[in-house]
Amino acid sequence: MLELTDLGFSYAAGAWIFRHLSLSVPAGSVTAVLGPNGRGKTTLVRCAAGLLHPAEGTVSQDGQLGFVPQARGGAFAYRAVDMVVMGRVRQVGLFSAPGRDDRVAALDAMERIGVAHLRDRPFPTLSGGEQQLVLIARAIASDCPMLVLDEPSTGLDLHNQAQIVTMLRKLVADGMGVLLTTHHPDQALALADDVVLMGGADDVRTGPADLLLTDEELSRLYSIEVRILTYENNGNAHRAIITAYGDEPE
User: Fold this and answer.
1) CA-based nearest residue to 180, from 77, 42, 21
2) Which of 17, 77, 153, 231 is found 20 to 30 A from 241 (Cα to Cα)?
3) pTM score, whole prediction
């Protein structure tokens, strides 16, 4: 369980990014954070991961969590597999060297994400999407019961975006809790049990996905007309986002 209670954050200038934000992410569930650029999504998940200190409120969690940032290259030419092994630091200890079990866990995580073929490539030579997949594998290798991901689909093509959604579904089915930010409401439709809609410092709403992921709420959030289309495929109902680019919401 990851729990944020009455959370608020402001930078040195004093303007609030968000206030009075409370949410819970139980084991075996997904909470997706959506909103326009610059509304505090990354700040929120960095507070949840313990990388930023909120100005008010508390963050509590059962056990450790794995944090996956947006991929931004790397200054050191570590091999991809070595980047994933770094996720085992809690199991290895600060002054110990990784052992066979740690490398097996790292390779297993890379296999699950579909990047085992990149194991010997220097991390900075990978594409942005490949780096993102390696960072996700690193978090999974940590064996944490909770994942916090900041834009896990950054730089990924449609095939790899679908792969990430499928992988997260499997992890959640195995009991993992997930908090993620996304610029893709359709991914929230496919994954989320609960959502956080961040429209501004005084416009943050949390609640069940089926109540907040609606035409009206998404059109209001993004200031553009958004429609949710329901269709059937192989006897199963699916939902997809349709956006009227260039049109203002009604």
Assistant:
1) 42
2) 17
3) 0.86
